[in-house]
Amino acid sequence: MKRHLTAEELALYAEYVQSGEKTEIAEDILTHINECDECASEAVEFSMLSKNILTGLSDKKPVAKKRSLLFAIAGIAATLLLIYGVWQIFELRINKNDIKIAGKNPPVINDTAIVSDTSVQEIQNPVDNKHEMLASNFAKDPETEKIIENLKGNMRSDEIEVISGFEIRSQTGMDISLEWENNNGNKLNVEIYTNVLVKTESAEISGSSYIIKSKLNPGLYYWKLFNEDFDLIFCGKIIVE
User: Fold this and answer.
1) Number of domains in the chain
2) Does residue 106 belong to any structural domain of this protein?
3) Is residue 50 part of a domain?
4) Which domain holds residue 49?
5) Looking at the whole model, is its pTM more than 0.70?
6) What is the pLDDT tens value at each position of the chain, 241 positions in all?
7) What per-residue string of b and e applies to 121-132 under the rule 16 or more CB within 10 Å gives b?
8) Could you tell me if residue 163 is inside a domain?
9) Across the strands, what pairs with 204?
């Protein structure tokens, strides 16, 4: 690798240019400057920078003047090298940021962005999850289904006859009415459950019908009718589509 002059050697050369004396400058420094254009350019710049410094030191003694000049020029050289190093680091960070940002953009062919399989999967996942959640809302509860089957052949009350039936189908947003015969005005309790048996509402009534007040989203629901003592009279299911 080609060697270039150090800051101290440049300072010696600058002193030589100002004083015209070769007292401490080696011949190989002059030879190198004559052969290396880069070092010659730097030597000229150092000589110009040191000119004003030398003028300010003209009243000092020769030895003090020489030392002060060397320290001043060495300080200038160190400052220039520091500025250059900081600029290189800053430029490197800018380049890295450009590469990182560019890496986020998908390649484009014929003005159309290429979407990877992973991106397609990420786009489709919310839809799949929504379908899975909707399907889970229609899952049957085995124990409640058994109760319904048992009640179909064995009604629990001679006074109450349910008109609505064991299965009610309805559309989202429509009123759902539960109906039965209650000629004696008995006190009854009605309860509405989700398909995982979470109670959504309940009421105590003495009439022969009840309109569900909760807004039921698409899914399977169960409803139960109890007498005043909370003995089960009827159990049915509601399917909201």
Assistant:
1) 2
2) no
3) yes
4) 7-101
5) no
6) 557 878 777 777 777 776 766 656 767 787 887 888 888 887 777 777 666 555 554 554 554 555 555 566 666 666 666 666 655 655 555 555 544 444 445 544 455 444 445 444 444 566 677 778 889 999 999 999 999 999 987 766 778 999 999 999 999 999 999 999 999 999 999 999 999 999 999 999 999 999 999 999 999 999 999 999 999 999 999 999 9
7) eeeeeeeeeeee
8) yes
9) 189
